[in-house]
Design brief:
The complex is a heterodimer of chains A (529) and B (105). With 529 residues, chain A is mainly alpha-helical. Chain A has 24 helices and 7 strands. A 5-stranded mixed β-sheet of chain A has the order 4-3-5-7-6, sandwiched between helices. In chain A, strands 1-2 form a two-stranded antiparallel sheet. In chain A, α1 runs parallel beside α8. Chain B has a domain of 67 residues. Chain B contains 3 helices and no strands. The radius of gyration of chain B is 15 Å and the shape is flat. The chains are: A mainly alpha (529), B mainly alpha (105). At the A-B interface, α1, α3, α5, α6 and α7 of A face α1, α2 and α3 of B.
């Protein structure tokens, strides 16, 4: 590999890290929606106890399903590697938030590097530069990273690398020069992807099936023969050994959404991902918010012309590597239309779009570089670098600037917990008994309350949550004036003060009373929600 | 080897400038989870980009997975992390002895 290519990878990594960690550079307290807090809790508990676990502590287990139909109550809801990674970085980094958030940022833009390897090896350096740079600024990945569904992003990042491995193996195999190492790599990458999140594995698996199916027909050669079957069995055995302890985590999870096999909305087969006719549009689509689907923001205006040009180029040329990319496209098309056959609810299926950006940027880059190449003589190839330079400038100016603005301004106070709230969470962790169950009033948003919940290692409910569950036994009330004071919201301050009066009237004294946050122990007393 | 040291040092400098000493520790953490796999792929004659990218993707999952398993045998998670690192290095050393370099695998 040439020095300037290594330099590019290094530069991309540094730019990616500095860009994606902007939210933690300006404020070192954790950020994200409820899911982000939940994932953080998983690793944070192992660090605190200096041990991994198979059953959740009570405060995490009551968060989502609370019951796995096969493994019973308190079972893990994801295989452990992703969250143990948080613990490892907390321990090695010697700090609770920054090391984890750097890891999260890096693992969220890793797709750029998978795309780089795929396109650099199968196409050329200019194609790889374009697509991987675009991935660093990918708005959809940035949004999901900020919200908190981070294992899903990482799982989809594996797809281009798995496809590259499969291609390398099959390329050698079809020429009677099999490179078995790529067969093993494919297997190990598929297992790794599955252990992070199963949705990415579905895309990889279907893409591989389609690719090998098409290639077998084209070359009239099955992808299995006597020489490789023993290795396939070995990979299967390794997979079963690694995956089997965790498979019931997924099998027994209660998603709360049931699917019924039926054909409906057949017209959807002629759309890529139209959401305007969906129930709940535009406010509640049963999955991510509407901005997740607004493709002009995810890419750039008229991006689809480049996608179509790339697809046509691939269809016309149809080299082996082109078939690989087209198989990836066909697999994603199939998977994002599973709801037409009632095989997956839309809310879950919509996350498949996280497999779209790497694919579309790859197709666009292949078309942008591949089409002019048809008309340029060898001596004129340097014009391609001029084209790449212009396009990179455009990418940085449009997508890069947008990415910077979003990341630099995300989760600023009051949308992120304050130092005062974090100090309170730590006090709870150090001073209140394990059977504490806290009712929070006054904390401005649900995600902030969720972060106080996980940072204090005590179960709790927010003011808008239902308390009508058998496992909820409120022992303490936390009244937080801090957000209302900082926002100068006198109405909210008065409401909190009136609410607190019931405890003062009952003769209770706060067990914690620091600046503008108070905690009452109400065991044995009545309280009004 | 010089390339790798150059890359690691560059990252340490940049991470130190933005995250202080924690940044350097994070780079060391990344190196720790990747190095055994990168060494293995290097032995299998892969290119720099393949070694690094396969190393990070596999390291980010298999390293914690091994930590999770071994932590049931070793009482401390902190100690387990270092045990896994040296165990993986040892495994790579064994594999290097079993599979000679330049063999077409």
């Amino acid at each position: 590999m040439k020095v300037y290519e290594i330099g590019f990878i290094l530069l991309l990594f540094i730019v990616g890290t500095l860009l994606w960690t902007l939210p933690i550079q300006s404020d070192q307290l954790p950020f994200g929606e409820g899911d982000a807090a939940w994932h953080f809790a998983n690793g944070d508990w192992a660090t605190k106890t200096d041990h991994v676990y198979w059953r959740f502590p009570f405060y995490i287990s009551t968060w989502y399903y609370n019951y796995n139909t096969i493994l019973g109550p308190g079972a893990l809801e994801y295989p452990p590697p992703y969250h143990v990674g948080y613990s490892i970085f907390q321990i090695i980094g010697g700090q609770r938030f920054i090391p984890v958030y750097i890891l999260i940022a890096i693992s969220s833009f890793l797709a750029a590097f998978a795309v780089f390897v795929l396109l650099r090896k199968l196409y050329d350096f200019p194609t790889a530069i374009l697509a991987s740079t675009a991935m660093i600024f990918s708005f959809r990945e940035i949004m999901v990273y900020l919200w908190g569904q981070r294992p899903t992003i990482l799982s989809f990042a594996f797809v281009p690398l798995i496809l590259y491995s499969v291609f390398r193996y099959y390329e050698g195999y079809s020429k009677n020069q099999p490179k078995i190492v790529y067969l093993y790599l494919t297997g190990i990458l598929l297992i790794s992807q599955f252990l992070i999140h199963p949705q990415g594995s579905m895309l990889s698996f279907v893409s591989i099936i389609i690719y090998l199916g098409i290639q077998s027909l084209r070359k009239k050669q099955l992808p299995i023969n006597k020489s490789n079957i023993i290795h396939l069995f070995a990979i299967l055995l390794i997979s079963i050994l690694i995956i089997s302890p965790f498979i019931n985590i997924y099998r027994g999870a209660q998603s709360g959404v049931e699917t019924k096999i039926q054909i409906k909305d057949l017209h959807r087969l002629f759309d890529w991902m139209e959401v305007k006719d969906r129930e709940g549009y535009p406010n509640n689509l049963g999955g991510p918010p509407i901005i997740f689907y607004e493709i002009n923001k995810v890419y750039f205006p008229f991006y689809y012309i480049l996608v179509w040009a790339g697809v046509l180029f691939l269809l016309i040329r149809r080299e082996d590597k082109d078939i690989l990319i087209l198989s990836w496209l066909a697999a994603l098309y199939l998977l994002i239309h599973l709801d037409v056959f009632g095989l997956m609810p839309f809310g879950r299926l919509s996350r498949m779009l996280m497999g779209e950006t790497a694919l579309f940027y790859s197709i666009m880059a292949i078309g942008i570089i591949g089409i002019p190449k048809l008309f340029l003589k060898d001596k004129q190839r340097h014009y391609l670098y001029v084209l790449v330079g212009i396009l990179l400038f455009g990418l940085v100016l449009y997508n890069g600037q947008n990415a910077y603005i979003v990341l630099n301004n995300s989760y600023e106070y009051p949308l992120r917990i304050s130092q005062e709230q974090y100090d309170t969470a730590q006090w709870i962790d150090n001073n209140l008994p394990q059977d504490t169950y806290i009712y929070y009033v006054g904390v401005l948003t649900y995600p902030k309350q969720r972060f106080m919940y996980v940072l204090s290692h005590r179960p709790s409910v927010w003011q808008s949550d239902s308390v009508d569950y058998p496992w909820i036994n409120i022992t303490n009330i936390l009244i937080d004036y801090s957000d209302a004071i900082k926002l100068n919201n006198q109405q909210m301050i008065n409401a909190l003060s009136n609410y607190e009066q019931q405890f003062i009237n009952a003769g209770l004294f706060p067990v914690y009373n620091q600046s503008s946050i108070r905690i009452y122990d109400i065991r044995g007393a009545q309280f009004v929600k | 080897m010089i390339t790798y040291l150059g890359v690691i040092l560059s990252l340490m400098v940049v991470f130190f400038l933005f995250f202080n000493i924690v940044g350097i520790k994070v780079v060391l953490g990344l190196v720790m989870i990747m190095v055994p796999f990168v060494l293995l792929f290097n032995h299998l004659n892969m290119d720099f980009d393949e070694e690094v990218v396969f190393g990070i993707f596999i390291g980010i999952v298999l390293f914690p997975l091994l930590v999770w398993y071994l932590n049931w045998l070793i009482s401390s998670l902190r100690i387990t992390i270092f045990v896994v690192f040296f165990l993986l290095l040892f495994l790579v050393f064994v594999i290097k002895r079993v599979i000679p370099q330049n063999q077409n695998v």
